[in-house]
Amino acid sequence: MTGPWTSTTAGPECLASLATVLIPWDYPHSTLDATKVKRDKKQGTRMVKVECGECGYTLRTTKKWLVERGTPLCPCNNERMKGPEPEDADEPEESGEERLAA
Question: Any alpha helices (H) in 1-102, and if so which ranges?
Fold first, then answer.
C-alpha cells in the first residue's frame, strides 16, 4: 500500500499479489434489472399542518395530539389555530379489553 494512511491506494506489489488471488470466473445468476426491483412505497409524513387564521403562523403536529388535546393555541393571540377536523374526536377510544370482546 502506498500513500498516507488517510488516503491509501494499492501499489504495484499489492496489485500483483491480488492478481494471483482474484481470478475472474463465471458466476451463474440471472441478469439483474433495476427497473423490475420491487420498491416499498415511500412513507408520507404523519404530521398535520395547522395554521393561525389571523397571522398565518403555521406548525405541524400529529393526529394523536389533535384528537387528545385539540388544535394548539397561536403564540401571538392565544386563539385556537385552524387545522383539519379530527375524525375520531367524537368517539371515545376503546380499551384493549373492549376491542377483544367485540
Answer: 12-21, 63-69, 96-101
